[in-house]
Amino acid sequence: MRAMATRAMAALALGLALVTLPGTTPAGAATAEHVHTATESGKHTGLTGTTTSMGDHATASTSLNTAAGEHTTLTTHLGPVTGGRNAPIASREQGARVGATARGRVALIGVPGLEWSDLDRSRTPNLWKLVTEGASASLSTRAVPPPDRGVTCPVAGWLTVSAGQRSGTAGRGCPAAPAPQPNGEGAAVPGWAQLAAYQGGTGYDAQLGTLGQLVTDAGGKVAAVGPGAALAAADKTGNIAKYADSPDSLTDLTPYNLIVLDAGDLATAWSRQPLDEYGVPTPVSPSTRQAAATQADRRVGALLGKLPSDTTILVAGVSDITPAAHLHVAIATGPSPAGGPYRHGYLTATSTRQDALVTITDLTATTIQLLGLDAPRAVVGRAWLNDGSAPATPTDTVTELSDTDLASQVLRDVRGPFFAVFVTVQLLFYAFAALALRRRRSTSANTPTAGSTASTPQTPEGEAPPSPASVTEAPSGSPAASTERTPGTSLLGSPAGSGAVTDGGKLASASRLLVAVQVVAVLSGAIAISTFLAQLVPWWSLPAPMLALIVTILGIAGLITALAFAGPWRAHVLGPLTVVALITSFALLVDVMTGSTLQVNAVTGYEPVTGGRFYGFSNIAFAIYATGTVLGLAGVAQWLLGKGTSRPLVLLVCTLYGGLAVFADGWPSWGADFGGVPAFVVGLAVFLILLSGRRVSVVKLLLVAVAGAVLIGAIAVFDWLRPDAQRTHLGTFVQQIIDGQAWTVVGRKFSAMVGVTIGNWSLTLLSLVALAFLFLVLDRPSRWGASALGQAYKLAPALRAGLFGALTCAFIGFLINDSGIAIPAMALTVAVPLTLAACVRALQLSRPTTPEPQSAPAAPTERPEP
Question: What's the longest Cα–Cα distance across the chain?
Answer without folding.
Answer: 129
